[in-house]
Amino acid sequence: MIDLGDLPPSWTVAPLSELTEYVQRGKSPKYTDISDLPVINQKCVRWGGLDTKHVKYIHSDQQRSTEAVRFLRVDDILWNSTGTGTIGRACLYRGEFPQAVVDSHVTIVRSDHRLLEPKYLHFFIMSSAVQDEIENIQSGSTNQVELSRKAILELPIPLPPPGEQRRIVEKIEALFAELDKGEESLRQVQTLLARYRQSVLKAAVTGELTADWRARHAGKLEHGRDLLARILKARRENWQGRGKYKEPVEPDTSSLPELPEGWVWATVGQIADVIGGLTKNSKRVSMPLRRPMLRVANVYQNRLDLSDIHETGLTESELERALLKPLDLLVVEGNGSKDQIGRMALWRGEIPGAVHQNHLIKVRLIEKGMVEFLLWWFQSPDGRQMIEMVASSSSGLHTLSISKIESFAVPLPSLDEAQEITSQVREALLRIEQLNIYTEAELRRSAALRRSILKDAFVGRLVPQDPTEEPATELIARIRAQRSAEPHKSGRRKLTA
């Protein structure tokens, strides 16, 4: 229940039904490809205004002439009444179309302008007093959540005199405009930080970042070719597979860029073991050997979320293959979104004895000192482009596989230079992360200020009262009397739900 607390003497509280001319949802229309009559749906309704790119259309003959009241008017409030994640969102209609209607998921709220400023109502709907109440409705239900017409009509509105409503709106708009400027600057900083991060990674994996360092150590570094030979030798000697050992596929360098002196191209299959995980099946429930299991939901780009870890059953032979070891790279195998495919993070042994499901592919480097360099490569612009190109699919689901990952070409510097690169990248990314934390904190502070401004606005603390203004109670009584004296108007809303 909305608690409005103590209000100034010139204010009153009235149900929205007393303050409106029309409150009604739209209908469920039959859409057409012909751009005739626009229909506003819940995707169009944004706090900042109407997003017209989601508009659909119907034939105008679906809208009967006797329902002209349903056509939108300037300053109507469009209020989402259903839909997870969109319910409760509202915007003002500013006449974006010559004629338009709404569908059954959006409610039109048309103020009586003698009593209620549309912008004032819009800001009140935006306030925590209303939005928290809608959030409580959603969290307390497992069914389709609905903001009913009855609930809208019964919504208690803290009502100051009209002049004070306008002053409140002007003050909110002025304060919000200043916050908008600050937030825009913070988002520009975030954009620049994202670009800087990409430029750091590109410089790291092309050798540009350590060009001076490499020049100072000329003649002292192991050639990447020799490092690759050592890795291949260790791979061959430690191989425990079945049948005859097969040398991994070498990279096709014909279309690859030139590398710095001392670097070579290799494939992931040459420098690492690439291993799949456990498939889900009903038999695992009864298996006595139990282990915590990482899923796709636990792996994000360069970070792990271990707040929700599932457990699975498995056999001893599966454990040997699926067990995670420190410095394994976990790669997401498939995703409907191209920019999410191949996201990966480094496992540092956070949960002893953990295993991974088959939708995560494990990359275990033979030379552990190269693991973070490999991570930077796959997150760099060139690495991401390669992943997205190999993972692309005509079906819309972007997928990787063990063989695809094994075939990826990667640059290979000396081990010493790879570790120097890791040190410099860590330092740069730490600075970026600190600045990102700061900008996020400032954006949260700005959002809190907005909530505080709205809270003060609707209890009479944002602007001073004018004792010469007609109190809201007297205004309502006068308008009610005028309504009683007016002849009945076709299409006028009823004052009761």
Architecture overview:
This protein is an alpha+beta fold and 497 residues long. The chain is 37% helix and 17% strand. The strands form nine sheets. The protein has a four-stranded antiparallel beta sheet. A four-stranded antiparallel beta sheet has the order 13-22-18-20. β15 and β16 form a beta hairpin. α4 crosses α9, α4 packs antiparallel against α12 and α9 packs across α10. The protein is elongated, with a radius of gyration of 31 Å. The chain starts with 11 loop residues before the first strand and ends in a 12-residue tail after the last helix. The relative contact order is 0.14. The C terminus is likely disordered.
Q: What is the topology, as strand order, of the major beta sheet?
A: 2-10-7-8
How many strand elements?
24
User: Based on helices, strands and strand pairing, what is the structural class?
Assistant: alpha+beta
Number of helices: 13
Instruction: Give the CA-CA distance, first to last residue.
Output: 18 Å
- Note the beta-strand portion: 15-25%
Radius of gyration: 31 Å
Largest sheet: 4 strands, antiparallel
Task: Indicate the percent of residues in helices.
Answer: 25-40%
Distinctive features:
four-stranded antiparallel beta sheet; alpha+beta; 13 helices
Strand and helix layout:
Elements: E1 12-15, E2 20-25, E3 37-40, E4 45-46, E5 49-50, E6 56-58, E7 77-80, E8 90-92, E9 101-102, E10 106-111, H1 118-126, H2 128-139, H3 149-153, E11 156-159, H4 162-206, H5 211-216, H6 224-238, E12 264-267, H7 268-271, E13 272-275, E14 290-294, E15 299-300, E16 303-304, E17 310-313, H8 316-322, E18 328-332, E19 334-335, E20 344-347, E21 355-356, E22 360-365, H9 371-379, H10 381-391, E23 398-399, H11 402-407, E24 409-412, H12 415-457, H13 472-485
Parallel strand pairs: 3-9, 14-21
Antiparallel strand pairs: 1-11, 2-10, 3-6, 4-5, 7-8, 7-10, 12-24, 13-22, 14-17, 15-16, 18-20, 18-22, 19-23
Helix pairs in contact: 4-9, 4-12, 9-10
